[in-house]
Design goal:
55% strand, mainly beta, single chain, Lipocalin
Amino acid sequence: MVGICACTVIATGTVGAQKATSADFSGVWVLNLTKSDFSGQPVPRGDTSRIVRTGNVYQVDQVGDFGPQRGGIQKTSYKWPASDGETTTQLQQGAILHVKVKTKADTSIFANEFSVQGQTMLVQTGRDYLSAGGKVLTRETDLREMQGDNQEPIHMTLVYDRR
């Protein structure tokens, strides 16, 4: 479940917070499978996110290909704070994504919860930041599944290239 939820939330999730003087994460971002570190978790076939800022909120539209054995192509849309704040998005099949963001210089520090029918399934914390030229978005994240016996965090580094 972490593989699917991780990229769903991350792509997931390939966004961050912004202040007037900080980086703008808007654009189309493609997961660089070669540069990313999935810590032994299943690697998606691909992941692309389109991020548009409106006011203090990013709209993220993501398409991830997880292969036929893990759910195939999945499309997800959600909101993410573009500055210090919180958002909650109702997802498919009754799932909810709640995101908290704190901006520190040009870095977005985030914590989010993915829940289904009132049960927290996944907790994610981490940070997003752009490369010096703004062509690469890096997400360093710890994911923790909240169901099952092993709730140890899984650390991943996801690298996205601007298209």
